[in-house]
Design goal:
single chain; five-stranded mixed sheet; about 15% helix
Amino acid sequence: MKKIIIGVIIVLIIVLGTVYVMHKNNGMQGMNMQPASQLQSSSSSTAKPAGKNAVTIKNFAFSPATITIKAGQSVIWTNEDSIGHSATADDNSWDTGVLSQGQSKSITFAKAGTYTYHCSVHPNMKATVVVQ
């Protein structure tokens, strides 16, 4: 019986260690979903965005928590935390993918509406894009 318990503990340690390493190395970065037809995304960069359509990810929060833009405009997210974060639509219609520290990604919103989103890594992080 002790051998079975020890074996189970070893397997759990291996699984948890693998998950930790993948998370630490942003192993989920390539798992972003394709944007919906009304959205377009641009590639990541390390340049800090300027302008009013920018959302900063810092201290495990999106700032601003609500951003309002016009149809056809883009929002650019920049991660300033040392851990990876994403901006992922609650309905999974768009996703920046996991952004490492200093990375940015933009999404263009073609249609008016209210788009709620969260961080796929930290689901308690929530925010909204309002498109007029």
